[in-house]
Amino acid sequence: LPLRVLDANGLGRVSDVASAVVQASTRGSAVINLSLALSAPSSTLYNAIVLAQNSGALVVGATGNDTLPGQPLAPVRYPAAYSEVLAVASTTHWENWASYSNGGSQVDVAAPGGESSDPILSASLGGGYAYLYGTSMATAQVSGVAALLRAYAPQLSNNAVKDVLRNTADKVGSYSYVNGRNDRLGYGRVNVNAALRWTLAPHLTVGPIEPTLLAQAAGVGVSTNVVLSNDSAQPLRWQVISTSPAWLTASPGSGQDLTFRATTTLRIGMSSVPSAGLYNASVQLRATDPSNQQSTTFVSVRVIVAPQVHSLFLPTAGAGQLAPQWINTSGGLGLGLGDDGSQAAPLPFEFPFYGRTYGQVWVNANGYLSFGEGYQGSEYAQNHCLPSILSPNGAIFALWDDLDPSQGGQVRYALIGSSQFVAEWRDVPAKSNGQLNSFQIVLWADGTVRITYADVGDAAGSTVGLESWDASIGLPVACNGTGRLPQPGQTRYYNTALP
Q1: Percentage of the chain surpassing pLDDT 90?
Q2: Distance in angstroms (rounded) separating the CA atoms of residues 90 and 135
Q3: S-S: 392 plus which of 51, 92, 278, 375, CB 3.0-4.6 Å?
Q4: Residues 488, 454: contact at Cβ < 8 Å?
Q5: Alpha helix segments (H runs only) across 174-247
Q6: pTM > 0.70: yes or no
Q7: How far is CA 351 from the centre of its chain?
Q8: What is the DSSP letter of 203?
Q9: pLDDT, tens digit, for every residue of 22-34?
């Protein structure tokens, strides 16, 4: 519902703005964007905003662009200065506070507003589009996030939407946050993914669904890992309540703040080994959400105790360590990829990847799988941090670096029946230093992704993470030496099926 209140020069009367706010609220608008600023308060506009607030609309306003270099923060302009308005400041592309952005105690959140060297394509005065920057652009983005949130969760009130946006904002920038906020960026830069996930009921998920333990009678106990996850942004506290039989162990015994941002590994093992046979064991977990509602989850564990177990030696990880959960792909297909090459491979199932499903995947020499498009050529050898609209997109980046299988090693894939797809980079050297890298990406039909690292050369110049086809969803894990760099012998789980 666009309502014109300013002329071609960006000027207008406060009464026209107030009238438009009233009209928008009475016509059922859920979000009202005010990418404009006044130099003084107006009782006429304030009364209109109070009416909109009481009608259930969320009013979003720009803090203003008056702060000068080396000068104190310019105060938040009206109408953003009213407590009924969600006040939006501006950040730069590099997640810093935009130096022109006004600030103060009224600032709620921030969003990208651009800067002179990196403007944003926006509607311009007099019609058409132009590259501009300012808190007006940031405000429009927050209004879009709020509208998406209200469409996805219409039961939320305007004040509840404000709380969600504040609670899920990312603490970016170099200025410290005191009690969760500061006067430049409020509670932080809005995060649409986290905001939407806040509306999901927190739920404890365990993968793999039925782990297996294989032990030798009269031998020592063995163990395996399962991954605990929660698709919601609302944190879960979890606790191991019991294990059965008594010789089954699970550690750690508890954890907290489990959200979509990070998973937790639960190690399931054996304190002793029973006689030979097949056992159905279980771990009972209790999860508690922020409202103290509790739920119980049972992890079924298949335990096989054999009279004798023969060892199979798999690829090593680092200094003689065993690479966990490495799959034998000797029956697979070697791709013979050259430098910066890519080749399509069929999947034995439709794989859900951030809102889309795919029946094939491209295996890239440079350490990643891509969906929907194969990225081939030297222009895709240089990594960048996630998320980014720059290609490649729609990909699982296990170790995105300028790897070169033409210098040695092999890239291959294998189909393990109809349940697993495995892509493997074995002893593939980095083009820059020749250091060898060995890792696997395993896909399951339910959207589970497992990355196992057997040998990692120098990961400091690589990118690790996942990104959707349009870069709207990104899971950055590591980039150019920052984040959680992969280590030899490490296994990581992800899930790309949206709720």
Answers
A1: 71
A2: 5
A3: 375
A4: yes
A5: 192-198
A6: no
A7: 19
A8: -
A9: 999 999 999 999 9
Q: Is residue 59 over pLDDT 50?
A: yes
- How far apart are the C-alpha atoms of 138 and 109, rounded to whole Å? 10
**Dist. CA 405–CA 279, nearest whole Å:** 44
Question: What H or E segment, with its residue span, contains residue 400?
Answer: strand 395-400
Q: 443: burial class by Cβ within 10 Å (0-12, 13-18, 19+)?
A: buried
| Distance (Å, whole) CA 58 – CA 109 | 14
- Stretch 389-393: mean pLDDT: 87
Beta sheet of 223-229, edge-to-edge order: 205-207, 223-229, 264-270, 248-251
Sign, CA dihedral 440-433-391-499, equals: positive
**The predicted structure's pLDDT at residue 342:** 93
Q: Return the SS3 of 220.
A: coil
- Report yes or no: 240 and 254 within 8 Å, Cβ to Cβ: yes
Residue 486 has pLDDT above 60, yes or no: yes
Which of the pair, 142 or 224, is modelled with greater confidence?
142
pLDDT range class, residue 321, cuts 50, 70, 90: very low
- What is the enclosing helix (H) or strand (E) of 129? strand 129-132
CB atoms within 10 A of CB 285: 22
Residue 111 amino acid letter: A
Tokens representing residue 465 in the block: 């993470």
* 467 token code pair: 């990104």
Tens digit of each residue's pLDDT (9 = 90 or more) over 355-390? 889 999 999 999 999 998 889 888 889 999 888 878
pLDDT greater than 80 at residue 315: no
Q: Which CATH architecture has domain 205-306?
A: Sandwich (2.60)
For domain 14-198, give the fold.
Answer: Rossmann fold (3.40.50)
3-state secondary structure 317-381: ECCCEECCCCCCCCCCEECCCCCCCEEEEEEEEEEEECCEEEEEEEEECCCEEECCCCCCCHHHC
Q: Judge contact between 342 and 376, C-beta under 8 A.
A: yes
Q: Any idea which of 140-149, 193-202, 387-396 has the lowest mean pLDDT?
A: 387-396
Q: And the tokens for 150?
A: 């209200």
Cis ω before 69 (30° cut-off from 0): no
